[in-house]
Amino acid sequence: MNSAQQWLADYDATLARAAADAKAASAGLKHVNGTASSPRGEISVQVGPSGALVDIRLTPAARALEAEKLAQLILATTQQAQRMVGTQVMEIMTDYLGDGPALDFVRENMPVDTDEPGPQDDEDFFNNPRVIV
What we know:
CATH superfamily: Nucleoid-associated protein YbaB-like domain
CATH topology: Ybab, Chain: A
Number of strands: 3
Distance between the termini: 60 Å
Helix content: 40-55%
Number of helices: 4
Keywords: DNA-binding
CATH architecture: 2-Layer Sandwich
Largest sheet: 3 strands, antiparallel
CATH class: Alpha Beta
InterPro entries: YbaB-like_sf (IPR036894), YbaB/EbfC (IPR004401)
Protein name: YbaB/EbfC DNA-binding family protein
GO molecular function: DNA binding
Organism: Saccharopolyspora dendranthemae
Shape: elongated
Strand order of the largest sheet: 1-2-3
């Protein structure tokens, strides 16, 4: 086999590996989801691979909350689920892309994981709400 044929064979093998890796990453991303519940269980949410809200469940206890407090609780709980999704996406994309500029781009567009502990109770949460931008 001459050098041009070998180069083309190697290139075809590289493309086949890249296609297989992309297919595996895509399949993995389809199954990504995140779920979270509020500290007292008034609400639970599920978000899909993009972080979009897929499901929300309110218990009767949610009715006792004022509208603004309920809205804040829904947002905070949804953000928690989105951070879970972001972690899963980063794991899949790290395997697919490896370290480099492409992974940096993905990382920059993921929800920020604040590493802050969640509120201990609803009173603490509502007295010290996180600012949502």
